[in-house]
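Ops channel
N.P.: pipeline sanity check, posting one input/output pair.
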């Protein structure tokens, strides 16, 4: 056990003896597992899933030099296609950094979409 600096006293740590505190359920610290993909079992939902997985697998196999421009284009498409999240991101940036110009906020939102796609593709690469 390490010595404490002069004037400091140890903070008592309760021993739970395998019991959780009142108000915390047995799944703590993890939430109960739930299906992420939802309950839509339609043909369209399955095809969307399989096409998305196939596209991601193809992107993950591209070399970095070829992947960069593809992700840049996909990020721009997402920026324009997903108006609701784009406007929400602009609003959040406006609240956090009110001094930024509209052009600068838009640049950061586009960069966030591009970064998200980069993370998704690199995560898929880890699974190979």
């Amino acid at each position: 056990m390490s010595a404490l600096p002069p004037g400091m006293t140890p903070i008592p740590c309760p021993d739970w003896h395998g019991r959780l505190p009142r108000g915390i359920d047995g799944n703590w610290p993890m939430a109960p597992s739930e299906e992420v993909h939802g309950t839509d079992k339609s043909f369209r939902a399955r095809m969307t899933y399989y096409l998305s997985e196939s596209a991601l697998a193809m992107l993950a196999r591209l070399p970095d030099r070829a992947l960069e421009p593809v992700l840049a284009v996909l990020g721009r498409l997402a920026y324009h296609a997903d108006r609701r999240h784009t406007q929400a991101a602009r609003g959040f940036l406006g609240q956090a950094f009110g001094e930024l110009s509209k052009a600068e906020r838009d640049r950061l939102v586009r960069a966030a979409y591009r970064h998200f796609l980069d993370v998704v593709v690199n995560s898929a690469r880890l699974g190979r």
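N.P.: looks fine end to end. The chain has a mean pLDDT of 83.
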